Amino acid sequence: MATSITSMNPKDREKFLEELEFPFCDEVNKYEKMAKIGQGTFGEVFKARHKKTKKIVALKKVLMENEKEGFPITALREIRILQLLKHENVVNLIEICRTKVTQLNKFKSTFYLVFDFCEHDLAGLLSNANVKFSLGEIKKVMQQLLNGLYFIHSNKILHRDMKAANVLITKSGVLKLADFGLARAFSLNKNNQPNRYTNRVVTLWYRPPELLLGERNYGPPVDMWGAGCIMAEMWTRSPIMQGNTEQHQLTLICQLCGSIVPEIWPDVEKLELYNKMELPKGQKRKVKERLKPYVKDPYACDLLDKLLTLDPSKRVDADAALNHDFFWTDPMPCELSKMLGQHGQSMFEFLAPPRRAGRPQPHPALPQPKPHPSADSSYQDRVF
Predict the structure, then answer these.
(1) Cα separation of 280 and 156, whole Å?
(2) Per the record, where are the segments of Pro residues compositional bias (predicted)?
(3) Which terminus of the chain, N or C, has less C-beta within 10 A?
């Protein structure tokens, strides 16, 4: 280019920007927005239709507000990871689109990630009392979720935001792990140097104890804890540990999983926050006992116990979880399409109505529900 864009006069620069072509990044106006289906710290998600082909997609807006110049590094990381991860149980990124630069948007494009559309998210389904999962259907949900985790972990990717709202399910019953906005590649320690990843990840109610205690050298077990929380939710229909703060979340974990002590978890006392948090002493492990009233299946209770293991080095991995007797005893995992076919409407956490009168109430001994920490609430009852 003979003339640098910075040396152009403002009029010429505006004309140049408006006429600029991007052959590998189409304009988003080839899609027509139909409805907003998600909102959170990550931005907005819309259901949209391709104007020519009529294909239904999901458009996820890339937040650009905090960017002085350039493209958000977190979005670049998410795009790179999604381009790498092509699997039936991982959401499919179709393309990246942009808005045309004009005077109205101060010559700054808005970018959208375009995904295959999924009709439901698991939080939306669980918040609807009319959606009933049989034991075989719960097995199918968990089998697909663990298949997705096995695949991403084999490709050295951590999800770092496992929760029911980030588990999408198509109307034909195919589960997709979604929202890789906090995901990152991980590696084994080089030259015995521990990794120093941020521990400010994972929505509080699904955050594992090692992150709450300040661990920065972590790996796939952080996602497996979230898988355990989601699995329990398949029966309780509500997140099982709803802390207000990191301290409260750790207290709830100890009350369910037992006291966090070096006898159970060697070297836990070396974690940065171990002596700074008030950790309940003398708590017995009660995972099976507390979940038994909800989860009648003994194999399910056993797998939950292995997923919600305090010491991450002893927590079951995705491969071992998929081989657990839970998936290999009657009833066997069965397709979700028949059950989902009875529900014509999309169900997303964002669209779920607030709790209505006349819904089944929590057991009087259990605390009352409270809003979800990360978005508009749609969860119904607090369990523990």
Answers:
(1) 35
(2) 361-372
(3) N
Q: Which one from 12, 26, 161, 297 is the annotated catalytic residue?
A: 161
Q: Which residues are annotated as a binding site for ATP?
A: 60
Whether the Cβ atoms of residue 324 and residue 303 lie closer than 8 Å to each other: yes
For 281, which DSSP code?
Answer: S
Could you give the domains of the chain?
A: 21-116 (3.30.200.20), 120-351 (1.10.510.10)
Report the alpha-carbon angle 122-230-170, nearest 5: 25
Quote the CA–CA distance of 253 and 273 in Å, as a whole number.
15
- Distant-in-sequence, close-in-space partners of 376: CB < 8 Å, separation ≥ 6: 39, 349, 350
Neighbours of 374 (CB within 10 A): 17
Two tokens, residue 135: 């034991």
Q: Can you tell me which residue has the tokens 């995705």?
A: 318
Name the residue among 156, 352, 123 with its Cα closest to residue 226: 123
Q: How far is 238 from 382, CA to CA, in rounded Å?
A: 6
CA distances from 207 to 25, 145, 163, 351 (A): 36, 17, 9, 24
What is the rounded distance in angstroms from the CA atom of residue 325 to the CA atom of residue 36? 41
Q: Which is it for strands 31-40 and 111-116: parallel, antiparallel or unpaired?
A: unpaired
**Residue type at position 96:** I
For this structure, is 330 an active site residue? no
User: Where do we find the tokens 């009648």?
Assistant: 296
What the block records as the tokens of 180 is: 């890789």
What is the pTM for the complete model shown? 0.87
- Chain Cα centroid distance, residue 126: 15
In which residue are the tokens 């006349």 written? 358
* pLDDT by 10s per residue, the chain, length 384: 455 666 677 676 666 666 666 777 888 999 999 999 988 667 799 999 999 999 999 999 998 766 666 788 888 999 999 999 999 999 999 999 988 766 665 567 789 999 999 999 999 999 999 999 999 999 999 999 999 999 999 999 999 999 999 999 999 999 999 999 999 999 977 677 889 999 999 999 999 999 999 999 999 999 999 999 999 999 999 999 999 999 999 999 999 999 999 999 999 999 999 999 999 999 999 999 999 999 999 999 999 999 999 999 999 999 999 999 999 999 999 999 999 999 988 888 888 765 443 333 333 333 444 555 543 333 333 344
CB–CB of 230/145 below 8 Å? yes
Q: Match 């998410």 to its residue by tokens.
A: 78
